[in-house]
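Appendix B. One record, verbatim.
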Amino acid sequence: MLDKGIRMRMKLKNTEIQEYVSAPASEFPKYTTQLMNVTNQNSQATRPRHVGQLSELIQEFSGQTFEEWVTWYQERYPNAIDEATDRIISMIENFNEAVDKIDRTLVKSWVEDLILVKTFTGLRFQEAILKKLAEIKGSDYRLAEPHEESQGIDGFVGEEAYSIKPSTYDAIPTVAESIEVKMIFYEKKADGVVFEIPEK
């Protein structure tokens, strides 16, 4: 029988874990690790194809000490750290060129794009879906009027009524289900929207 009595919740910080397993503590100047993380993500320098699947390698490692781990890893991937460093340095040079181009005007344009453009397009993609479907069908489209919206209709392509819902939508019997409304399911992606249209 497992004892499910009073339990104490504890947390170990990374610095404590490092200390307990006798791994060397590293210190970096402020903001540098954030920049190197972003650069690493862009360069993909420490992806498994370059440095090995580290979560699996540490399980294979049968030694005990940090020094043994260093030796064991470097025997298997002798050039990985230097090659990852080169990839990150190369990306940092690209970033430096980009940073030189960033001034107040560019930052303002980026903020406007985020707040004004992306918000507007993000909220208006239902209309874009209807317009695309109308192009495919060689028909016209229109958005639903308030009394039609209350019936679960988002718009029309030709005479067909459509309801546009996220792919995670769970159909609940409502007024919309009691009338002839075709469903379009969409999934919002970082770079746009993917949607499925009924074939008939």
